[in-house]
Amino acid sequence: MNHIFMTDVSDALNDPDAFIAYASPKLSGYRNEKIKRLKVTGDKVRCAACGLLLNMAYTDYKGTDAIPEEHIRAHGRPVTGDNEFYYSLSHSDRICALIWSEKNCGIDIQAHVPLTADIAGRFFNPDEKKYIEETGDNSVLFDIWCAKEALIKYDGKGLSYGLDKFSALPLLTDGKVIFNGKTLFGRAIRPEIPGYSLGYAGDNQDFSINNLVIKFN
After folding, report:
1. Structural domain includes residue 51
2. Which tens digit of pLDDT belongs to each residue from 8-60?
């Protein structure tokens, strides 16, 4: 099973100092150092919220409260100290998202923001461009983008892979895709929160989605 956690950090963004003070003792040394290095307050809040989601996921996995040790491998791919727990994190504007599993997985979330007209031409392959044109819905562009990012995060090779070199369209239409010679399962969806697209992919076929509230005051 792939487990997806999402949280809205609007309240935390309105009171960032209180939120970060609440989160800090619950986060790994790696994440606290990362928060200190960030310059933008909103980025600090989103980083802390992702860390709290990770703690919740790791607690589910271990069956006991524990702060996971976080390490970053090549291309920014995260791993916990025990190397048994697979997860991927993403955030955009006021939403943070995490996917975790006992098998490899990837996730991406994106707010629907204004885009330049040539983004599809530069990053999408012909099948994806045709699909966007046929639907007549520019927000589908975000669905495809998130699906592609989720696959790249799964693969762990980073953006050097080339977004226009493969199609993530089968995740939107069939719920599975052949990627780098392997069958993966996932979706690109619009979550309950309006104005966002969410893409996820993994080795397991089953997914659950949970919207969580982080109370800090």
Report:
1. yes
2. 999 999 999 999 999 999 999 999 999 999 999 999 999 999 999 999 998 88
User: Other C-beta atoms within 10 Å of 202: how many?
Assistant: 25
Q: Which residue in 21, 19, 24, 22 sits closest to 8, CA to CA?
A: 19
- pTM above the 0.85 mark? yes
Six-digit token pair at 137?
């819905």
Cα-based distances in Å from 70 to 38, 77, 102, 141: 17, 10, 16, 32
Number of domains in the chain: 1
Please report, for the domain that includes residue 167, its CATH number.
3.90.470.20
Dihedrals phi, psi of 92, to nearest 5 degrees: -155, 120
Q: Which domain holds residue 159?
A: 2-211
